[in-house]
Amino acid sequence: MEYGFLTLLPPILAIVFAVAFRKVALALLIGIFSGQMILCGWNPFTSISESVNSILNVCADTGNLKTFLFTSLMGAFVILVRVSGGVKGFVNYLTEQSQKVKSPRMAMLIAYIIGIIIFIDGLLSIMFTGVVTRPLIDKFKVSREKLAYICDATSAPVNAIIPLNSWGAMLMGLIGAEIASGYISGDPMNLLVSSLPFQFYCILSLIFVLFYILSGKDWGPMKEAEERVRTTGKLFDDGVTPLLNDSDGFEELVPEGKENKWNMMFPLIVLIGGTFVGLFVTGGGNITKGNGTTSILYSVTITLLVMCAYYAKQKIMTTKQFGEYVIKGIGNMITLVVLLVLAFAIGSVIKSLGTGTFMASLIGDHVSGAFGPAIIFLLGAVMAFSTGTSWGTFSIMMPIAIPMAVAMDANILLTIGAVVSGGVFGDHCSPISDTTILSSMSVGTDLFSHMKTQLPYALVTAACATVMYVVFGFIL
After folding, report:
1. Given Cys at both, which of 134, 297, 393, 425 links 384, Cβ 3.0 to 4.6 Å?
2. Which of 179, 203, 217, 206 is nearest to 67 (CA)?
3. Which residues of 45-60 are buried (b: 16+ CB within 10 A; e: fewer)?
4. Domain for residue 441, yes or no?
């Protein structure tokens, strides 16, 4: 049955409610229910029942459960490397080289490198990069705004480009849902990895940050901030109240000065190595044919067991304490798991309504499929900017973008990259984004100062990414 313009109602309601109330989970629930209302002939009681069933069906799928488990266990991994002193030891090891730094350029490069290396968690990357390198940055008279830009412009892009984290779990889950729906075929991990070169905004963001660091060719409000600190020594504008609260931090189980970088590096090596071994085994000797979701789930499980023995041997924590931190880490990821379940459910409703196909039919005769990825990038950017969340944007856009790409004969990998890049760009610029707020806080400046200096840089990067999506849309 064809529903015409009614097929647009669920995603529109989800987007409107997400923007109005900034509650993505609520927005997804409203989208699910409104879609079921259309499918069930506007019977509210049947719609409620079918909405619940659609959510339960998502939870009953084995592939989905693997994604939820991996996501939860990654929460345990992140908190364990924190409390064991692994992250701080790793950062301290890098910053010990600061004694050899003799220029602002080298000081900023250390911040840039730390922001890239700590890819397991975006907020963790921002906090440690800002707090640890702030004294070094101040010493060489680099503005706090410039450090905030470095922190913000490396964290999310690196998380997206190196998806061995909860970002990867979510994106693979969303892609997997479209595979299960029959729109596309393949393995979620293989498709995600293959789409990485097309995350143009993420890649360009890292390149532009490095360019500004090495060349010193700042412009606009950022140039004014840099000139202010060089000429007056003022780290921020008059009247600015820094957001940094030095009392915030993580309670570590190792004494000050005894942090060990290997408490993070060794588990990370096991996790990455285990994933490749899993791909080799599940792929029958061919890594490219391996089951990514299964491989990562097994790898993170084995990694946690190795971490338990490794930390217990060092007497950092008992096995009982280890278990408590695992539970705490899993608990921290419950919100993400709920969001994934709802995202999968609204994806099934949108499929039943044929929303993506209908949207493509509206513009298919007027807009070439080559423009599809660029349009998706811009739509995702507007949504992420309005809601302050890239993950919520992924959840809403992926179930729409992939069916549209199929119907318009647009490149699937380019489309996936556009969804991710659009979400990262919008979230990067949003004043209500947790990454924007934390970037300001961690370096000790205010939100407005960070926004006004970073936004021009982000817009130029996004403009270049848009052009690349149009060009590659015609080439591929």
Report:
1. 393
2. 179
3. eebeebbeebbeebee
4. no
Domain count, the chain: 1
With a pLDDT cut of 90, the percent of the chain lying above it is 21
**Region 137-159 average pLDDT:** 86
Yes or no: say if 151 and 435 are a contact pair by the CB < 8 Å rule.
Answer: no
Domain that holds residue 224: 63-162+202-228+242-332
Phi, psi of 335 (to 5 degrees): -60, -45
Tell me the whole-structure pTM to 2 decimals: 0.72
Residue 11 structure tokens: 């995603």
Task: Tell whether the model's pLDDT for residue 2 goes beyond 80.
Answer: no
**Average pLDDT over every residue of 212-238:** 87
DSSP conformation letters of 88-116 = HHHHHHHHGGGGG--SHHHHHHHHHHHHH
Calculate mean pLDDT across residues 317-345: 85
d(CA 157, CA 195): 14
Q: Provide, for the chain, the percentages of residues in helix, strand and coil under a 3-state DSSP scheme, each rounded to the nearest 5.
A: 80, 0, 20
Q: With a cut of 50, say whether residue 247 has pLDDT above it.
A: no
Burial (0-12, 13-18, 19+ Cβ within 10 Å), 383: buried
Please indicate, yes or no, if residue 337 is contained in any of the structural domains.
no
Q: Which of 171-185, 228-242, 454-468 has the lowest mean pLDDT?
A: 228-242
Provide CB contacts within 8 A for 40, sequence distance 6+.
46, 47, 50
Q: How confident is the model at residue 98 (pLDDT cuts 50, 70, 90)?
A: low
Higher pLDDT, residue 119 or 245: 119
At residue 302, the pLDDT reads 94
Structure tokens at 467: 């052009």
The CA-based angle 57-191-399, given to 5 degrees, is 45
Is 376 within the bounds of a domain? no
The verdict on residue 18 lying in a domain is no
Instruction: Report which residue type is found at 187.
Output: D
Backbone angles phi, psi at 143, to 5 degrees: -65, 150
Which H, E and C letters describe 302-330, residue by residue? HHHHHHHHHHHHCCCCCHHHHHHHHHHHH
